[in-house]
Amino acid sequence: MKVARINITYPQLNFAANNRANDNAVRYNSKKNNVNPLKESITTAGIWFAFGVCLDFLSRKISFFKSPTKNSFAINGLIALVAGIATACKSVSRNNNIS
Question: By three-state DSSP, how is residue 7 classified?
């Protein structure tokens, strides 16, 4: 008894994402890698300095409590809460865009 060889050919499958998404990812990563560390650190320091000065003026005008320490904790807690919510929303939106 002779058994014939069976040849199965599978279609060529392409698992790459569309080119537009790949181009955007390459552009984002290239911009991220070409950042000057000195410029970025000076910019960040300047922004935080300006934020601190504005927060100081704001804390003088708005008082939740009679004690400056309690007032500072309340204002910083409010800012931390807003920043945490913003970060959570950004993280959720990033995770939804990936899948």
Answer: coil
Range of weakest confidence among 30-34, 42-46, 69-73 = 30-34
Main-chain dihedrals φ then ψ at residue 13, nearest 5 degrees: -105, 140
Distance from C-alpha of 61 to C-alpha of 49, rounded to nearest angstrom: 19
What residue has token string 């040849």? Answer: 7
CA dist 58 and 49 (Å) reads 14
4 phi, psi to nearest 5 deg: -80, 145
**Contact status, residue 59 vs residue 71, Cβ threshold 8 Å:** yes
The predicted structure's pLDDT at residue 81: 87
pLDDT in tens, 6-40: 777 777 766 666 556 556 665 655 555 666 778 88
3-class secondary-structure state, position 11: coil
Q: Using an 8 Å Cβ cutoff, are 3 and 9 in contact? A: no
